[in-house]
Amino acid sequence: MRAAIALAETDPNLRIALISKVYPMRSHTCAAEGGAAGVIKPDDSFDLHFDDTVGGGDWLSDQDCVEYFVHEAPKELLQLEHWGCPWNREADGSVAVRPFGGMKKKRTWFAADKSGFHILHTLFQTSLQFPSITRYDEYYALDLLVDDGRCQGVTAMEMRSGQLRQFHAKAVIIAGGGAGRMFPFSTNGAIKTGDGMALAYRAGAPLKDMEFVQYHPTGLPNTGSLLTEACRGEGGILVNKNGRRFLQDYGMGPETPVGKPQLKTMELGPRDRVSQSIWHEIQKGNAVSTQWGDCVLLDMRHLGEKTINERLPLVRELCASYLQVDIVKDPVPIRPVVHYMMGGISTNTKAATPLPGLFAAGECACVSLNGANRLGSNSLIELLVFGRRAALSAIEHIQGLPAANTAALNARAEETQKRIGELFSRTDGTESMSGLRKEMMDTMEKNVGIYRTEEGLQEGVSKIHELRQRYRRVILTDKTSVFNTDLFQALELGSMLDCAEAVTVGALARKESRGSHQRLDYVERDDKKFLCHTMVHHQGLDVPRVDYLDVVITKSPPGVRDYSGDHK
Amino acid sequence: MTQMKERLVQLEVLRYNPDTDTEAHFQRYEVTCYEEWVVLDALNKVKADIDPTLNFRWSCHMAVCGSCGMMINGEPKLSCHTFLRDYEGVIRVEPLAHFPIERDLVTAPDDFMEKLKRVKPYIIAKEKKPISEGEYKQTPAQLMKFRQYSMCINCMLCYAACPEYGLSPSFIGPAALTMAHRYNQDSRDGGRMERQEVVATHEGVWECTFVGACSEACPAHVDPASALQQMKITSSIDWIVEHLIPGGKK
Ligand SMILES: Cc1cc2nc3c(=O)[nH]c(=O)nc-3n(C[C@H](O)[C@H](O)[C@H](O)COP(=O)(O)OP(=O)(O)OC[C@H]3O[C@@H](n4cnc5c(N)ncnc54)[C@H](O)[C@@H]3O)c2cc1C
Ligand code: SF4
Ligand code: FES
User: Fold this and answer.
1) CB proximity under 8 Å: A 28-47 to B
2) Residue among A105, A566, A112, A565 nearest A375 (CA)
3) Are A125 and B58 in contact (CB < 8 Å)?
């Protein structure tokens, strides 16, 4: 939506189709609670945001990209402010910022604990004033139309009627979101099935750094619902069954006073480190056992009812409804949960993919901002910065393009039609959709979780590969045309399997530990061999091909990630 | 924390497929659930294990995306936030009232989407300024004047609850009017007069008879009834200003 608005504003004569499989304000951005980072306060600087992002990403971020991003971020947040986003304010009327994990300064703009929700609705509502944006709500994108070596459109199904539609376009921007649903335990909504990534990948654009999957430390153990990092930003603490603040035992100490969180240390360490510490704590037998498995405790009682109601109302609500715990009175059990894909469609700093005419932004893209571990509150702002950037690049791209070969595009679209037709008419199907989906999720959890090994990954690669073969025999129960979610779930499963294979293959090839990718058999970071991006190329039904791309380093050579409190 | 208890839940779900059915009918499902589950979990289990042809919308499972509204035992509810523990016996699940059914529990929200657009739910700046000049100052007190009304998740439960909307579908309705009010109340906005053309009509606030069902149904505590009440007051002030004081209209 950010891209659509930028297109409409820049050139009102463009015809813009906004295609989404859900009504746009239902997109999963609405679930983001914490906020969006951008340098605005006088004690902060672009260099500090740069350093936090690059260090947080364990030096796998492209530094030219980070540089562009930190400069654009505040402009985008201000733009949203001008569009009406209800950011929290200081007493003098200026925008308020809060602390966030891995950030050295307070720089996270927030709208209570509904930041993503307000960003999404502000964008959606703002987009309504542009007549050149035509929305195609509840259209499911199926395939990209590629001809003459460039992307020239997309095919989609109108969900309400089951009708296939072609969109011929000079440029396509994908903003399809993440793929966390390939894991069984995830903060991601049902729609985050990696369709956008799979769309590009099948059309020949490589997926980058897919093995980097972020676990958020604080998920509710039963539903996977996320308790925002702001819980810790506001002063919540993590304790084990003995009441010990165990993060101090994993290089994030010394202990800070309760209720006085210090930036970039203890509970405000980066997500990968905090999640990994919880994993170790559970291995050591220091977990609290609950009916939903082993957990540690998040204690916010000392914040008091007033602060909790003012700053963390949604968190209180979620814990009360889904777990029947009142955080004012009791600590809440939590465990790490799959949250975010650092990897995605490979894009450069201009949000362009290697496939001409195809651009991507948001979680589905990997512009190499987040490197091996995203910092909380860098994603909401990433999708704004690079959404706009994608629009500008698309406008550059379409200047002087030759006319499309309509016959060739129609022929491509017929292939899609055949694929869908075959799925409907299949009579020899033997595989149930929910069965395959469960096997995929179990494999991802077991073999490609927080800690990984050669053996586990080998098994994961062959299992996912097998599932992709078996997917060709998946059977639809529902063969009717109107809002057939059996069909869409089957298509989503196809997308997730493609993404799952890229994650697994990338993880197997990366024989080092960096950021969120941790291997028990290669425990060190290896900058000699792996200071590079994994690029996974789709090879039809075969195992994908992997090659590498160098990381762009401009001013910050790889260093040590230090989250001990002594280091300021 | 309570212990997780299993329970056999009976659901009676309205089914309708325009491809194959001439009219809607109820279908019974029996499914084993955990006591702590919500109705949406039960429906998902039915879809995965019993009947893949059952259709409904959902995404976030945390009462924020607004997708999963349906009638549960006759009341408009978010199914992801309606707990089995609050129900006994057969639970009847139907699509949201007052909207046409697309299929099963999926309704067509076109009318709401169109009305939302009509109230111009975006900032019409009082004074435009470039981004380089920084933010518009807004004090916490100014923010509080509209924040509650900006929490609307567009779930349309208030429309399903509203007797007026049921009787006269041209009524712009609670959520869209509240959204107009939200922008009117925003210190950065100067678009109230433009919105009044839509809002202060019989399709607008004057249609509302203050039953208050919208606020009762609202899962996001937006309290649309209070927004409509405030708007009626300001709209009658406008009316006086426009007609009794020459030149009073901007
Ligand atoms: C619970 C939670 C909390 C978070 N909190 C924060 C935070 O505090 N700060 C932060 O910076 N980040 C946060 N994140 C991360 C951030 O919210 C996401 O990375 C970001 O919102 C992704 O936005 P997006 O626009 O890329 O994708 P989405 O918002 O998921 O949108 C994807 C869009 O693509 C469409 N789409 C997908 N597939 C298809 C298809 N086949 N056909 C047509 N349309 C399709 C969907 O309909 C949807 O409109 C959080 C994430 C979660 C899950
Ligand atoms: S006002 Fe409340 S009930 Fe109505 S659409 Fe908004 S959130 Fe839903
Ligand atoms: S699933 Fe999002 S509101 Fe219920």
Assistant:
1) 28, 30-31
2) A105
3) no
Q: How many residues would you count in chain B?
A: 250
Residues in chain B within 8 Å Cβ distance of A485: 47, 55-56
The ranges of chain B annotated as CATH 1.10.1060.10 are: 110-243
Question: Which amino acid does the sequence have at A332?
Answer: V
Residue A342 contacts residue A214 (beta carbons within 8 Å): yes
pTM above 0.90, yes or no: yes
Written as one string, the DSSP assignment of A291-325 is TTEEEEEEE-GGGHHHHHHHH-HHHHHHIIIII--
In degrees rounded to 5, what are phi and psi of residue B84? -60, -30
Using alpha carbons, select from A325, A116, A377, A115 the residue that is nearest to residue A220: A325
Q: Which CATH code is given to the segment(s) B110-243?
A: 1.10.1060.10
Judge whether A259 and A231 are in contact, CB under 8 Å.
no
Active-site hit among A98, A232, A273, A517: A232
d(CA A81, CA A345): 29
Chain A, 124 to 163: residues with Cβ < 8 Å from chain B are 125-126, 128-129, 137, 160
Q: Is A232 a catalytic residue?
A: yes
φ and ψ at residue B219, rounded to 5 degrees: -80, -10
Q: What percent of chain B has pLDDT over 70?
A: 92
B240: pLDDT strictly greater than 70: no
Ligand index nearest the alpha carbon of residue A175: 1
Which amino acid does the sequence have at A539? Q
Mean pLDDT by 10 residues, chain A (568 residues): 98 97 97 92 94 95 97 97 96 92 88 93 98 97 97 97 96 97 93 97 98 95 87 92 94 89 87 92 93 93 93 88 92 95 98 98 97 93 98 97 95 96 90 95 95 97 98 95 96 98 98 95 95 97 96 94 65
Alpha-carbon gap, residue B209 to B205, rounded angstroms: 9
> Looking at the domain B6-107, which fold is it?
Ubiquitin-like (UB roll) (3.10.20)
Whole-number Cα distances in Å, A394 to A7, A14, A195: 9, 11, 21
Ligand 3 atom closest to the Cα of residue A190 is: 1
CA angle A224, A230, A232 (to 5 degrees): 90
**Domains of chain A and any CATH numbers:** 1-212+342-398+406-568 (3.50.50.60), 216-336 (3.90.700.10)
Find out whether the peptide bond into A254 is cis, omega within 30 degrees of 0.
yes
Mutation choice for ligand 2 from B157, B171, B182, B223, CB with most ligand atoms inside 8 A: B157
Please tell me the distance from the alpha carbon of residue A51 to that of residue B84, in angstroms, as a whole number. Answer: 48
Q: What confidence score (pLDDT) does residue A565 get? A: 66
A514 vs A507: CA distance, rounded Å: 11
CA atoms of A229 and A337, how far apart (whole Å): 13
A481 touches chain B (CB under 8 A): yes
Question: Closest partner residue to A321 among B64, B81, B143, by Cβ?
Answer: B81
- Measured CA to CA, the distance from residue A128 to residue A514 in angstroms comes to 43
ipTM over 0.90 threshold: yes
